[in-house]
Write a sequence for this structure.
């Protein structure tokens, strides 16, 4: 007989019960067990952005959602108790549909992909592009096929966006309207100016295609990596908002970033950007080399980041979408290195 569940949006008082549910049924989750990350991702205007399935007053399923803009959200941390009805996952997802939310997920677990396929959603992988700089040795990456491509184009000017006021003054709202899920001023401010761990410092850049006219906003994060031979640095492009074709006019910017800062490489996890744009810019997608994704601590293997796309046309996905780009809290705590 089909189990009967009450599926509802959680309230703030459910926070500890949700954490206990995940610890019992899966493992301790960084985004759920770390109070700062939990509040940052899931608490909005004194509401809790989690859906729970309750049976006889026990939480037996849960799924968080992270707001992008309007009714566009990323689903995060979908979990159902072992032994519950196999349709419960479908019922939870249907709850999002019934609320009229447009949703997707980045970094989904392999064991949930079948449910999204049943519902007819698109399943795919982000492509991992990287731009190598010419180094005698690579300590973060493992390079067996060294391919160095240079692009010195400087058709457009790159502007550093250093404050909220500058974001409003220099970025026209039309930049946010090109792709889905939609992003907004408020999303960008919260995501990149107010991330709770300060050692994850994001840098916002704008491409100015003519006097006062900006077409594209992109976000980078420099990361220091501990290797057996000391600290090495890489740069990660974690988000691109707006028109991607203008990237071809700022090749010199990336070349200079590598030269000035001594990066081994710049990488970019993304979906939806024309491969020819990335290639002409000097970024390649070559799995013969190992370009690690997990850098704290360094794990030398190639990863995959799987997404599902619920109902978006003109879909784009990047490493910083949802809760994917975040520090390894447990690792930093073990070294007493968490930045307050």
């Amino acid at each position: 007989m089909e189990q009967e569940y009450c599926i509802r949006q959680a309230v703030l008082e459910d926070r500890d019960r949700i954490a206990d549910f995940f610890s019992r049924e899966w493992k301790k989750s960084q985004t759920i067990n770390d109070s700062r990350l939990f509040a940052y991702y899931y608490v909005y205007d004194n509401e809790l952005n989690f859906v729970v399935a309750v049976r006889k007053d026990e939480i037996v399923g849960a799924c968080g959602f992270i707001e992008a803009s309007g009714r566009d959200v990323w689903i995060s941390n979908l979990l159902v108790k072992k032994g519950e009805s196999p349709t419960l996952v479908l019922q939870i997802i249907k709850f999002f549909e019934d609320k009229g939310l447009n949703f997707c997920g980045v970094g989904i677990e392999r064991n949930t992909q079948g449910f999204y396929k049943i519902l007819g959603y698109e399943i795919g992988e982000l492509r991992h592009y990287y731009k190598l700089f010419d180094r005698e040795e690579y300590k973060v990456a493992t390079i067996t096929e060294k391919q160095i491509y240079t692009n010195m184009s400087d058709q457009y000017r790159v502007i550093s966006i250093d404050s909220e006021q500058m974001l409003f003054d220099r970025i026209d709202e039309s930049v946010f309207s090109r792709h889905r899920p939609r992003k907004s001023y408020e999303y960008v401010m919260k995501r990149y100016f107010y991330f709770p761990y300060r050692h994850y410092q994001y840098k916002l850049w704008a491409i100015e295609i003519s006097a006062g006219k900006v077409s594209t906003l992109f976000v980078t994060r420099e990361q220091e990596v501990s290797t057996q031979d000391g600290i090495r640095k890489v740069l990660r492009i974690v988000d691109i908002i707006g028109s991607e074709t203008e990237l071809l006019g700022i090749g010199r910017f990336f070349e200079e970033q590598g030269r000035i800062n001594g990066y081994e490489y710049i990488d970019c996890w993304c979906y939806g950007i024309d491969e020819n744009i990335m290639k002409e810019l000097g970024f390649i997608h070559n799995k013969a080399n190992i370009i690690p994704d997990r850098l704290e601590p360094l794990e030398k293997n190639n990863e995959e980041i799987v997404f599902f796309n619920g109902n978006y046309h003109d879909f784009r996905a990047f490493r910083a979408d949802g809760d994917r780009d975040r520090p390894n809290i447990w690792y930093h705590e073990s070294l007493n290195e968490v930045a307050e």
Notes: Residues 15-25 form the longest helix (11 residues). Residues 61 and 80 are 4 Å apart (CA to CA).
